[in-house]
């Protein structure tokens, strides 16, 4: 078990690329901590700095209170699992699991006990004498996890471990990793570019962009109180709709209509005239539904451009046009509604659910201090 602390950690590569600007992160003992962000944002760099595969340019990495700058990866008591799970094709599953322990010169009986325990946790028992070639992608991934588990490390570092698997298997392995982490209670740092994986797995998530941490919080904090437009649109699927708005006499003029702002919202907006308004797809309601009553904001008419019916969800794509610009929008509505492409639908937004952002800095104007849930 281990607490992992990065204090002012930065990484500049020899060619001058700044992969990570000075960053402070404290990952709790036993926490499942996610690093998420688009390609090139510095997720793998941050993980490699914890692992010791790269050296920090600035700052300090501490694992369980010990500064590990300059400490060899093998002496950091951590285990890594990569996307390309390195398992030996010519060895059986049992031999693959035993290998790191033989390298560490553990006594035979201890190796057997640890392999048996890992095999039990990962349900690899019946596969122990097979070679990787005769295993499915998910089973190979479990062997790779097993090789990390047998070492009984203080922390697991996982870099996109599921991205080679097909969609169904990914969902299944995601659940297995969550279960595994709960059972072992070992600190886990998990890199992904997939926001769904981040939201479903993480105790807390750090969203990165261009080498800077944008926000750290629980999945719920990031979803409900994003600190800026980047986090607001990165977290959530389909993404939050963001449109420009103009404040006039306490009312917010949006490309599709006007909404009355609450005194608290007016106070936070201050004397700004231009803002950005974020609306989650589920914060639209159909004007004729009970949720779409008179106090849910102004109803307006939209022409349905595309309908995505997923059984439990119904997404309606439409657009608003203002000042010659077109804004594509998505609303999630009651899947029982009969809507067809080309038909008209009356939608409204509850102004209280709006996320407002400064149009210049794109920082949130809403309350970003998370409400404590625990
Ligand atoms: P991906 O999801 O594509 O793996 P990432 O978020 O993990 O991306 P990193 O691999 O951490 O991103 O890379 C961060 C930045 O540092 C990128 O701009 C990358 O091109 C750059 N970078 C990574 N390794 C090196 C290197 N050895 N030398 C120079 N630049 C590098």
Short description:
With 374 residues, the protein is of the alpha+beta class.
Please give a structural write-up.
This protein has 374 residues and is of the alpha+beta class. Helices cover 24% and strands 32% of the residues. It has nine helices and 21 strands. The protein has helices spanning 43-51, 93-103, 108-121, 137-149, 167-184, 195-201, 219-224, 229-234, 263-269; strands spanning 4-12, 18-27, 32-36, 58-63, 66-67, 78-81, 155-159, 187-192, 204-209, 212-217, 241-248, 251-254, 257-260, 274-279, 284-286, 300-303, 306-309, 314-322, 325-333, 344-349, 355-358. It has a six-stranded mixed beta sheet, sandwiched between helices. A five-stranded antiparallel beta sheet has the order 13-12-11-14-21. A four-stranded antiparallel beta sheet has the order 2-1-4-5. Helix 5 links the parallel strand 7 (155-159) and strand 8. Helix 2 (93-103) crosses helix 3 (108-121). The protein is globular. The protein starts with a strand and ends in a 16-residue tail after the last strand. Bound molecules: adenosine-5'-triphosphate (ATP).
| Residues in β-strands, percent | 25-35%
Portion of residues within helices: 10-25%
Classify the secondary structure makeup into a structural class.
alpha+beta
User: Could you give the order of strands across the largest sheet?
Assistant: 6-7-8-3-9-10
Number of helices: 9
Instruction: Tell me how many strands there are.
Output: 21
Low-confidence stretches: 369-374
> How does the overall form come out from the CA principal axes?
globular
Top keywords for this entry?
disordered C terminus; single chain; alpha+beta; 9 helices; globular; 6-stranded mixed beta sheet; binds adenosine-5'-triphosphate; 374 residues
